[in-house]
Q: What sequence folds into this?
């Protein structure tokens, strides 16, 4: 009967590879969301309210 080779090294290597890929992709997509969607929308919102406040101040003569 032939002995079966242990697979512990393959399991550990696969786990490290899977975790590295998952963390890498997570960082890439989270940065894409943050700088591609969240920051521009936040800046647009802040500019909108700044413009409203300037208009309100101009109407009141302050």
A:
């Amino acid at each position: 009967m032939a002995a079966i080779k242990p697979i512990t090294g393959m399991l550990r290597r696969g786990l490290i590879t899977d975790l590295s890929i998952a963390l890498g992709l997570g960082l890439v997509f989270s940065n894409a969301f943050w700088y591609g969607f969240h920051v521009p929308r936040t800046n647009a919102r802040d500019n909108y309210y700044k413009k409203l406040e300037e208009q309100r101040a101009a109407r009141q003569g302050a």
User: Anything to note?
Assistant: The chain has a mean pLDDT of 91. Residues 33 and 39 are 9 Å apart (CA to CA). The two ends are 94 Å apart (CA to CA). Residues 8-60 form the longest helix (53 residues).
